[in-house]
Specification:
By secondary structure, the protein is of the alpha+beta class. It has helices spanning 10-15, 30-35, 85-101, 110-122, 193-196, 202-205, 283-294; strands at residues 126-134, 140-148, 152-157, 163-168, 171-176, 181-186, 207-214, 217-224, 232-239, 245-251, 257-267.
């Protein structure tokens, strides 16, 4: 879970705006926590260090005849430089580069794909559309998405879900319309940086683990180590030309996977700035909320 705060009245929530406390079991908030941002738990206790093994007995000196493998090795043809230490080191380095680079360029130029993805996200000022969230247990729920960079985001779940999620650029508030409650989270602890940041460089701001062709498009696999509870694994799915984000998939540190499918996305539409308002309990916040409701 991302940094949870206990469910309190609006006034105490503001006081706790700079603190992160141990999470509580996900109840009504579960679908949000597990789906849009990926479930986060507090880091597990560090594993107990295993006892150092007893020193191994000293190896016996090899017999003289076992120390002469060179006589049984076929001689290298004249002019063959592969046996030189410099050539061997170069070959080893090349093998390492190939091992690291192979998963990043299976059927496409990974660098070009990442550049296109960065251009897509950095070209967004506002974004609206619909989403369908598919949880780890297979449950599906839809809703509407509204985004205004930098950092402002809103998810309105369809009925019967009472949830409403708002990010104002600093915090994320999860509101339960039925219970009239609100939970706050640090925006920096969410793995949705690719949507929230004004400018994003996927290779710099996250860890790219794979870029590959996917049926009907391109898949970019990322890791975000800055989320609370461990590393989140994120997969972004684009069309073949990397011009539309069709879905993302988040796998939390415990291995639970949630998919959010997107549709009817429209960039650049005018959106109401009050949609991203969060009431922290201050006097001015209460006055603003009253004014918004009166509109």
């Amino acid at each position: 879970m991302i940094g949870r705060r206990p469910r309190l009245a609006a006034g105490p929530l503001f006081i706790l705006a700079a603190a992160v406390v141990a999470p509580v079991p996900a109840m009504a908030q579960g679908s949000f926590l597990d789906g849009l941002f990926g479930r986060k738990e507090e880091p597990a206790p560090a594993p107990v260090e295993p006892e150092a093994p007893s020193p191994a007995p000293a190896a016996k000196k090899p017999a003289p005849q076992a120390a002469k493998p060179a006589k049984e090795t076929p001689a290298k043809p004249p002019g063959d430089k592969s046996a030189s230490p410099k050539a061997a080191a170069k070959a080893a380095d090349s093998a390492k580069v190939a091992a690291v680079g192979a998963p990043l360029a299976q059927d496409a130029d990974a660098g070009a794909v990442l550049a296109q993805a960065n251009a897509y996200f950095n070209g967004i000022t506002t974004l609206t559309g619909n989403f369908i969230q598919i949880g780890a247990d297979g449950r599906r729920i839809g809703g509407k998405l509204t985004l205004a960079k930098p950092g402002r985001l809103r998810f309105d779940y369809d009925q019967p879900s009472p949830l409403e999620v708002v990010a104002d650029g600093t915090s994320v508030a999860v509101k339960d319309r039925k219970l009239g409650t609100q939970d706050l989270y640090f925006i920096s602890q969410t793995p949705l940086k690719f949507l929230l940041r004004d400018k994003i460089d996927l290779a710099r701001d996250l860890t790219v683990s794979d870029v590959s062709n996917d049926p009907g498009g391109v898949r970019i696999s990322l890791e975000d180590r800055s989320t609370l509870g461990g590393t989140s694994k994120i997969q972004l799915f684009f069309d073949a030309e990397v011009k539309t984000l069709s879905q993302w998939r988040i796998t939390d540190p415990q291995g639970y996977q949630t998919t959010v499918q997107l549709s009817n996305l429209q960039k650049g539409r005018s959106v109401d700035g009050t949609a991203f308002f969060i009431n922290y309990g201050r006097t001015e916040d209460r006055a603003m909320e009253k004014q918004i409701r009166a509109q």
